[in-house]
Amino acid sequence: MIRCENIRKTFGEQEVLKGITFTFEKGKTNLIIGKSGAGKTVLLKILVGLMRPSEGKVWYDDIDFCNLNKAQLRELRMKVGMLFQGNALFDSMTIEQNIRFPMDMFTHMTLKEKTDRVNLCLERVSLTGVNKKYPSEISGGMQKRVGIARAIVLNPLYLFCDEPNSGLDPQTSITIDELIADITKDNNITTIINTHDMNSVMEIGENICLIDKGYLSWSGSKDQVLSSEDEHLHDFIFASPFLQKLIDGYNAPH
Amino acid sequence: MYYNETIRQMYDIGIGSLPIVFLISIFIGAVTAVQFYYQMDGTLIPPYYIGYIVRDMTIIELAPTITCLVLAGKVGSNMAAELGGMRQKEHIDAMEIMGVNTSSYLVMPKIVAAILVIPLLVCVAALVSIIGAYLAAVPTGLFSTADYIKGIRSFFVPYNVFMMFVKAIVFAYILTGVSCYQGYYVKGGSIELGEASTRAVVYSDILILLADYIIAVVLTA
């Protein structure tokens, strides 16, 4: 479980986050949704420790994340995996070296053990035989899978995904969503996904928070999305005219 | 990991810069010899003095300073662009989340590699300059081989070599430190990355020239 309490973040005069309090639950796919510029990436960066909040606290279970010393932070980092929007795979390393990197940093495993673990993670994301290739030699969807494999290589307790579907076709997006949801369930971990993909919201959104202009505007599950009367949520979800027409058609008297 | 990265950087900086160092050094030596001959022609100064002047000019000033100014353009801009690109592509964020001390992992090997390799490049530059002066002047009949070798061997002060190494080490630190700083803290997109790369070269060059003056004053006092 990860809990943020009254998170505020200001950049100069501009207050981007205005007191966000929310609990991201263990064993569930937690989604942060919102329009571009709403502050969701800033929130994710604060949660993962890439930014410090101007005010407020972040709790990883019972650990106060904002008050850790270097050694404690390093220990906690071992339990965190992250999939970046642009994958952040190191261009000069092969796929195998990319996935092995966290193990090189954190563990004293032998090369054989590391290679076995790499192969296991690649199998988990349905990607085998690419060990010796470079990131530039595989497709965007495959790069996402490699990013996921690297994120889960140390068996993290907390998995962060920043826009996992950006730049992917709808079919591949669904595959990636399902993969992340399966990993969350199988490993019983806390997964936080930053997205504005409506398919993801409706497919895997078990615990959703909507950020609007720096405020927590709405929270609930995917089952509550359609029945909600929250104006901000409605504006966000049905921003697509196509989707609006579908819903209007569905609601029209037959 | 740090060892491997340092070796990779040493190879990139050292072997990767050899062609440009060879090229500029040979011309620096050649031009120095030809111009000193022009200035001394018709005076009472014996011709072998040209060899002596080329040697000391090269060792004390031209080899370390010109080499490092050129390396600031080649290696410095490359480092700034590499680190800036990693920052923009979230590689640095990814490493931080993996518990890597990124400033140490990414910057330190570059500085260590530069401090180890650039003095060697400066040595090569000095040697090639002296050869360049010979090739430009002796076959064209400006002075004889005997005169040049006599000049090269005259009035040698080992302390000058020490000055060359001091300059090379200080300049190496400046050009890598400034360039890595500019790249590591880049913000924005490709335009800002280009600006950071330019700043890396300009600031490095200015600081190298300033340090050159300070070292000259301190070590010759």
Protein described:
Chain A is 41% helix and 24% strand. Chain A is built from 10 helices and 10 strands. Chain A has helices spanning 40-48, 70-77, 95-106, 111-124, 140-152, 170-187, 198-204, 222-225, 231-237, 241-251, and strands at residues 2-11, 14-24, 29-33, 55-60, 63-64, 80-83, 158-162, 190-195, 207-212, 215-220. The longest helix of chain A has 18 residues, at 170-187. The N and C termini of chain A lie far apart (45 Å). The model of chain A has no long low-confidence stretch (mean pLDDT 88). Chain B is mainly α and 221 residues long. In chain B, 86% of the residues lie in helices and 0% in strands. Chain B has 7 helices and no strands. The interface between A and B is medium-sized, with 19 and 11 residues.
What's this model, at a glance?
The complex is a heterodimer of chains A (254) and B (221). With 254 residues, chain A is α/β, with parallel strands linked by helices.
How are the secondary structure elements laid out?
The complex is a heterodimer of chains A (254) and B (221).
Chain A: E1 2-11, E2 14-24, E3 29-33, H1 40-48, E4 55-60, E5 63-64, H2 70-77, E6 80-83, H3 95-106, H4 111-124, H5 140-152, E7 158-162, H6 170-187, E8 190-195, H7 198-204, E9 207-212, E10 215-220, H8 222-225, H9 231-237, H10 241-251
Parallel strand pairs in A: 3-8, 3-9, 6-7, 7-8
Antiparallel strand pairs in A: 1-2, 1-4, 4-5, 9-10
Helix pairs in contact in A: 3-4, 3-5, 4-5, 5-6, 6-7
Chain B: H1 2-40, H2 48-88, H3 91-97, H4 102-137, H5 145-153, H6 158-184, H7 190-219
Helix pairs in contact in B: 1-2, 1-4, 2-4, 2-5, 2-6, 2-7, 4-6, 6-7
